[in-house]
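Feature request disguised as a bug: please show the residue count (739) next to Family 43 glycosylhydrolase in the output. Example input:
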Amino acid sequence: MGHLHRGGVLAAVLGLVLATTASAPAVAGSGPDRYRNPVSAGFADTFADPVVVRGDDGLWYAYGTSDPLREGEKQAHRVPTARSADLVAWTYVGDAFAPDQRPSWAAPGAAFWAPDVRRIGDHWVMYVTVTDTTVSADTFDTAIGAATAPTPTGPWTFADAPVVAPRPGGGGGYLWTIDPSQFTDVDGRNYLYFGSYYGGISVTELTADGLRAVGTPSLVAVDNKFEGGYVLRHDGWYYLFASTANCCAGPATGYSVQVGRARAPRGPFVDRDGLRLDASRAGGTPVLTQNGNRWIGTGHNGFLTDLSGQDWIAYHAIDRADPYLDEPFGINERPMLLDRLDWIDGWPTVNAGAGPSEEPRPAPVTTARLDERFDSPALTRWRAGDDTWQVADGRLTGTGALTSRTDLDGDVRVEADLRLTGADAAGLRLGPVDVRVEAGRLTAREADGGSASVPLPAGFHPADRHNLAVEVRDRRLVAELSPARLGDQLAVATLRLTRPVAGPLTLLADGGTGEFDNVSVAPLYRPARHAVAPPGVGPLLSDWSDEFDDGLDPAWRWVRQNPDATVSGGALRWPVESTDLVGTGNTAGVLLRDAPSGDYVAETKVTLDLGEETVRNFQQAGLVAYVDDDRFARLSQVAIWNTRQVEYGYELPFAGRPVYGGNIVGTPATTTWLRLAHHVDPATGEHEFRAASSRDGVHWTWGGVWTFPADTTPRIGLVAHGGANPPVTAVFDYLRFHR
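Example output, currently without the count:
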């Protein structure tokens, strides 16, 4: 998303003249072995809401929200576009739209946010948030527009009507119709996911050309918690990635990515614990969250797959030491990062759960053992036999069989872009296995073995360009046909082989001509099998803990004592105060005690009946790591508008005033268990606090990390504040410390 607050835009966005550069050639073996985030550093200081596609030329293209690219530039680019041969070194190639280019229904000052680019049919479609339209006098009556182009770099032409028009909100103003993301299902239907905090995330079906919404939208993720939806299909499940918390709170930004999955594009999407994303107590399994290193506010993701089959997540983040592009409290500086996306036990997680990377890491595989872009008319790496094949305009066409001089060996991923320009069937032969598009089906057939065949959508056009990817691991073959390589398969065929795949790769076109491009053979990636272990919880430190069995332990100290908080019957009972700690008010009571030295885990069990659905802003109770009223990390179950969330809020002094943001950690029940795991960074001496929550005290969801300077001494305590209407009492069973 862009720079938002409820009811308006923080900064006006201006245009910049279109710029272009020549294409860089793709050279086999040119990619680096390692890379370091942010990958956008070579061309931009900020590149928010990024998405990445692979173009017909085999290069990669990234698109970002309308912002200035560099500090001091002051003028915003209108969907800046970058190109890369290796996903690591990027070059700015221009803006998608000229300064005076906008759809007819867009207001003159409209900005373009959060683009999503897909291949539909024989052209590319860009979906983009238009922040201001001519529908009303409201300057934030957002809508989703679409533009089409023959190439990933344009020229882009806007459609004459919005895909999703501005939607009046029941609470006034217009619902946030932002953050579009397109998805094509196995039945060929096109869908668009869109929306944000005011209105939630919805999905609507699109016309076949992708330019109009049809039917009735469905809510798939609750309002006031999620935005930036992105859906992909993996192993038969539909995964909805969504960002949560505030995108743009500078050094206190706790933006992160969560996920739910479903058996259909319209949901219902549920998390690992079976909790729906469209409920008041909304679920969400963490995919990506800050881990205590340089990066905070890790969110608004795109998705891609490298030539080895490894999935990657593209997203933006904030350097906590440099959170603003220019002056404090202006545009948040959000460069593009890239990290490995692993699938463990059916759920996606970044770097096996380790989170965003700061140090050098193995780079994506973007060149291969066989990596044919057909840039030369000579077919020196191929054997045509008696068949006729030729190269023109960077594409291969022919009839019959064309065999590579490179043999397959071991677990591999093979892929090619193909069109059936006259052929009855076309595809790939991997040693003894043929994988073809034929007679409206995707078929895999092993010589002297078995076969698998699945139908293609009724509206499938074989003359359109599609990507065919085939992976073989441990004699299990999986073939996928997709329009864009973005988890949008039109068909998936799976076949158990009787013997390993060995021998040459052959391109096949029967009964007429087929067209091929971007043919590659790469060793198949090695999947991560186990997630990084969460913080361990060791023996109880009884001298530091309090079970509230016999009054309040003398070790406790109050900041603004609340005389209504009492201890009896083994619990601390604290009526929620009509006060807060956020900002300059600092009127809430805080009950504190010293913490042990070194690594420890603090835990409490708190019961707070916040009900559901109704607005009870911002009643809450939970744990706090506290230095003073302007530097604390607060882990609470809280009512945020109609939702109930576990918010891990953080306040710190910055540029002369306190700044507050939050990170979302799990889903609360009426009784919720909360943990803060403390660790001292041996290199910096910083205090790192990682948060977790549980609905039963057994199964825990671990979230993000907030840090405190080395020269501070955080204490641990309890809070119960945020509003006294209706009256409600927080009941704490204990505060325990574990080594």
